[in-house]
Amino acid sequence: MNASSESGLIDAEIRALGEVAGAMIPENADLGMPGADDPVILRDIACSLGRDLPLVREALMAIAARSRRAFAALDQGSRDTLINDYFAQGGAAATALGRAVLGAYYRDDRVLLALGHEPRPPFPKGYRLEQGDWSLLEPVRRRPSFWRDDRIVTAGEG
Amino acid sequence: MAPNDKVDVLIIGSGASGAAVAWSLAEMKMRILCLEQGDWMKPTDFPSNGRDWEARRYTDFEISPNRRGRDTDYPINDDNSLMKIANFNGVGGGTLIYTAHWPRMHPSDFRVKSLDGVADDWPVDYWALERFYDENDRMMGVSGLAGDPGVPPRHPPMPPIGLGKTGTRYAQAMNRLGWHWWPSDTTIATTDYEGRAACINLGHCTPGCAQGAKASTDITYWPLALRAGVELRTRCRVREITTDEHGMAAGAVYYDADGVEHFQPAEVVILACNGVGTPRLLLNSASARFPDGLANSSGLVGKNLMLHPWPIVSGYVEETLDGGRGPINCIWSKQFYETDPARDFVRGYTLQFGRGTGPANQAMVGAASGLLPWGRDHHRRYRTMLDHRLSIGVACEDLPEEHNRVTLDPVLKDSNGIPAPRIDYTISENTRRMMEHGIARAEEILTEAGATQLYASRTALNYPGHLLGTARMGTDPERSVVNEWGRSHDVKNLFIVDGSIWVTSGGVNPTSTIQALALYVADQMKQRLATLFD
Predict the structure, then answer these.
(1) What domain range includes position A110?
(2) Is B163 exposed, middle or buried (0-12, 13-18, 19+ CB in 10 A)?
């Protein structure tokens, strides 16, 4: 089973998705961050489209049209501009594409480790939350009550 | 149509209010049946069990039923509303996906006409509900800290959630400004409580709690109600309430999971379907005797919908904070809750201070705000955001207006062919001024906390699922749908216990008050049993 058959996208659409995803989140070797066109991440993106497949397809077509069907040939600066302009317009298709790419990218083991996060689900281990500085509450404790007691106040005394 | 045995009490909906009223009435040893259109949820169903936990907030645990699209959901046409509708259909209802924030209404919220000259007073006051708030706090299990000068006295049975780094940062800023803050009350258990395990900080708990630390009625009220003999029947979607020749409710027509139609006769019918589901059902129960819908002689069924406009203002600091490693609830502020004649609006709002969010959701909110770019600068900017986020929600009271309403959509239907609800809703000028005031104060706080990259999301992205006011309570049958103890003015054996019966909305999350009201109505029913239909 490949990403194409699992996702419902044809091979050409997978390639287009990879080009766009790689432009949205490019690799940064200095930070240890893969690009969203990394094969493992791209497969995850493609396989998690589900109900958003038609919208993502619509987004890819819109981006292709903006680039006059030459997105892959654009230099990186032009891709950045085109992608950011496209997303600035908003809409359901852009939202679906953004969620699909980000949802898969930011659960990749390499990405999470590079960000200092553990690559695991929250349950069952959970996380530690420190108590913080409760002494900050002291000045608030000293305040008199200031909620309006309707048994005492009358109209206009707010 | 399959025959069913008649029950004494038929409750429709198993969420916050349905569970509370079922538990309370169970001691009467009547035959009580609850019909729920959703399923039981298991702890293993919830997203925090898996690596896709963040993405599932936008699919099968999305708060909008239109997006979620489970086969237990019904569609809602909310195209004509900037605020969208959130709900959940399952045993526990909306409590499965709420944030577990647990403020009460203030005493002044029940007397807005007398005190502030707007809307209407409630026919009950805070003090009549106080013991039911307390009882409900014990049942749901509340964590918090007594002594808050901004709210009436209450005594949460568990200690508050830790401030963490994020709460400490907020608190320092609030103290410098001289503004009120206090740790938020929450139904997230901070200690083992009544069979529930303590919170282990699984992150934002809106899409359910795998640990079972967050109180939802499937794990609080329902086990006790079932043990006391109440029957709960799932996957039963009610189409209409029928009436007999005397104009009394006769029972409910519903579809089971296979789409088979049933009639369930009952002596008493109680609606607990929330502020959208209840008016939908009443309007769809029109008959020759009740041509405008059941219990609608006032014409107010579906009107006065209130949704709590909820701007969220966010910013980012250099310090590494809690991020998504803890419940979203942190602290609240009542500094601007009560009416201040010096402002250009009446009533007020609660400020709710949130922790951050997980890696994927941080990227999504950053991208949605336009602050997180795509392309070469993505990684650098993202690292200034993840675990550095502060966000303040402005929980605004919106006042009742009849043009904000629920009607039946003439075209859209659910999978059983039942007309879907249609929402028409606008935000009033008073509320808009309140929102802008709250946004400005939130920006002051965030700036004082050292945050930059401030962004205010006004309404489109924020819909808390507070569905209120569409079958309001009151003493005047011409100006209300139910009386001061929840009984329909028109149909003497029909009761409503959900957020529909609210007269005004306050500036707080409603679940605590919805349940206190349900317990109050149940108590009234028990006290008046001999004369219930008089």
Answers:
(1) 3-114
(2) buried
So where are chain B's domains?
A: 7-159+185-306+400-426+467-531
User: Given a cut of 70, is residue B74 above it in pLDDT?
Assistant: yes
* Domains in chain A, number: 1
Taking the CB of residue B7, how many other CB atoms lie within 10 A of it? Answer: 20
CATH class of B7-159+185-306+400-426+467-531: alpha beta
Does A151 reside within a domain?
Answer: no
pLDDT tens-digit map of B417-434: 999 999 999 999 999 999
For tokens 């770019």, name the residue: B373
Q: How far is B326 from chain A (nearest CA, A)?
A: 6
For residue A35, is it within any domain? yes
Q: How many CB pairs under 8 A join A and B?
A: 201
Tokens, residue B397? 């009271």
3-state SS, B450-504, equals CCEEEEEECCCCCCCCCCECCCCECCCCCCCCECCCCEECCCCCEEECCHHHCCC
Q: Do B301 and B471 touch, CB atoms closer than 8 A?
A: yes
Residue B471 has which token pair? 């079958």
Indicate the Cα dihedral angle B297, B300, B302, B308, nearest 10°. Answer: -160
C-alpha distances out from residue A51 to A54, A121, A156, B90, B510, Å: 7, 23, 55, 22, 32
In chain B, which among 102-121 make CB contacts under 8 A with chain A?
Answer: 106-108, 110-111, 114-117
B128 close contact with A: CB closer than 8 A: no
The per-residue pLDDT for range B127-173, each reduced to its tens digit, is: 999 999 999 999 999 999 999 999 999 999 999 999 999 999 999 99
Nearest to B55 by CA among A58, A84, A44: A44
Output phi, psi for A89, to 5 deg: -75, -20
Q: Is the pLDDT of residue B525 over 90?
A: yes
- Amino acid at the residue A18: G
Residue A100 within any structural domain of the chain: yes
Structure token pair of residue A64 = 């292709």
A122 assigned to some structural domain: no
Q: What is the ipTM of this complex?
A: 0.94
